[in-house]
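>> received
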Amino acid sequence: MALLVGKAVRLVSRLSHHGGSALPGKVVERIDPGFLARTLSGLPRGVVLVSGTNGKTTTTRMVASMLESLGLKVFTNPTGSNFTRGVVSALVSTLGLSGRLHADIAVLELDEAYAVHFVRQVKPRYALLLNVMRDQLDRFGEIDTTARLLGQVAQATTGTVVLNREDPRIASLAAQTPAQTGVAYFGLSDDLLTYFPTDDDMHASDRGADGDGAGSAPPPVRHGHRLPAEVTLERVMDHRAAFRLDGRILETNLHLEGVYNLYNAAAALALVRVVLEDREPDDAALMDALSKVTPAFGRGEVITYQGAPVELVLVKNPMGFRLALSSFDPAGQDTMIAIRDEYADGRDMSWLWDVDFTSLRDTGVAMVSGTRAYDMALRLAYDQVPTEAIETDLDRALAAFLEVHPGRPKRIYCTYTSMLRLRSALGRITSVDDAGVGA
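>> returned
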């Protein structure tokens, strides 16, 4: 009955364009609290849980896509609705009336806090824990709190936990895994460490010279010379990367945008190798599977409008925004920034002051929008970045932005709810892939 009701809610929600991708899951959880655990319990290869501050959606997509390319039938939550009810909603969409999940493995993205709720119901066989950064401080508090949440995921994992050895808080979670649970790492070559600073690196100036400022985290510790990594990212190139696996250097082209997604690819490779260790896919098959991965919706997704590309780049914390800005040359593009402060974005937008926007000085920003448009415009002004227009209404802002230099490539940096609304608005005027998400 819960499944039938959930499917009915999903249909009504989509037809009426009300509610989001998680609404059917919320209803099903209320009717049948055991639905999630019961449905996922019979998967032959169990459940993969992916969590961390940055890169969850794209990395989950990478892992799921690669495992499918390598022969497994995969269930995943592809929309980025990463609460437990979002996973239930994805199940409602996938399941037939029998209620049986026809898959070998589930690859699931979970919000850091909701991952704890998930593992109380379902023990993952594998966990991939990416990083901890200052993000949504109004929800999580300081990042040590986030690390403690991810520690509970590590404690609940029954097979193998894959950790980021370059993030000291993530690497330290190895000590919290059960004795029978394996630990593997992904990492960076020494040459790339400066491309991907940890949260401590970014906020080193907040501590005293001895690193013992009041309430501060421990000084950054880099683990690259002490912990063996399953996969390391060795070199980054334009839509191409080189990885080290068991001493071998492998290169492949990628469809993904941004240097940060190349590091996510190393994480995905490490996890896939662990899941398929009984099959040991050859190097060519692994690289081919990775090369086929396309961007997750709203994460470097390119939508064509009147023959010109409109790229959506999700930004939700200082590190993500900084890496996005460093990944893309603004020359020859029109730039828009859309910042909202709904619950899913995080209410505290003070993190914008930790982002360096000087790379936009020469080109300027054509449009700033969203509920926090004026905060964003003020931040740009402090970095001497010219702003051509400010419009808090996203629909009007998008329409005006698209008319600037028709036919010229455009890039929009946007928070999560801004991305959903902009994507929906674009869907009314051009072709946009259906991701199953309400407006």
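>> Residues 32 and 391 are 44 Å apart (CA to CA).
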